Amino acid sequence: MPNRENSTKIFISSTAQAALQPLRQKLKTILDASGHKALLFENNFGLWTDNTLRDCLRKVSESEIYLLFISNESGSFTNIDPNVTATYAEYLRALDDQKIIMPFIETHILDMFRQHIKRPLESRISHYKKQFDSDPAYTYDIVKEMVAEEERGTDLYDKLNNSGVHPFQWAFIYDLYSTRWTYSTALANADLACEFIIEALSQILKSLTPYYPVLDQINESIATADRLTYFKESIPHLMQSLRGGKLDTKNLLYVLSMYLKGGNIKHNDSPLDNRVLAQVADCHAICLYEKNGSKLEILEHSDAITPQKEYNVSDSSRLLPKHTIQRMRILSMCSIVKRNSKSI
């Protein structure tokens, strides 16, 4: 038996309307038979809690591919945000987690959007941006205004009111259509829709195959680019410490403290043991000492601290390791270490 936990997880997202149930079930059967793991709300993922939305969003995060089907019904709106449906919340999670997102829209609904809804909606959103110098918080708000203000008897009024499409769906489609490629197919025909979806998945796989042999190099390049960006951003701050050819030590220490971030100290190095032994907070202050004979003398410090002016390196009562006191200059990073919720 194949190990399903190692299979590609594909989240199938749509409203629970009856017209889409045959497609959802048939697609799950095909995907599972192909060695993938299809994730469906109505199927048993394991133990559910009393917060099904949170459970669904967690499953979206666990998946690699997010398949979205949009028909005429909006589905239920969330209690957390009355402007967002459960399906839209799943889409937002997939977007945030940078999943492969493949939206499939009922053909006649997408055709109507392109021919009759898209332009007047774009016009209203453009007007909103000019008026408020920002995007609307919710596209759905603009759609509701458009539906309410459209003059009775116009072609658009008749189509909006006779389409049987919930107004939220026009907002959903607009958000998808304006940012990514959308697929059009007859979702009500489960057999034909499944064939089309499998073909689309195959095209995605085909487009990614040239990059698979160089996947390690791509990941390394991404990591290098992140480090380079971090370095580039730090340069202007560090250059401020050089004024008139002289080093502003205090400012240098302040800048360094901005980039010294804390983190977790693990219980051990095992990848199976994620227990946290202690936490090191971000650096908020730095003291710089210089060794002068048998003493460490303060050179400079940053931020609101009152450091000890000097240490006697021959004093065995001081908690300074031998390899530290042998250095000519010592940088002491003052951070707070928390262990078992108590400072140490």
From TrEMBL:
InterPro entries: DUF4062. It comes from the Bacteria. It holds the Pfam family DUF4062. Residues 9-94 form the DUF4062 domain. This is DUF4062 domain-containing protein.
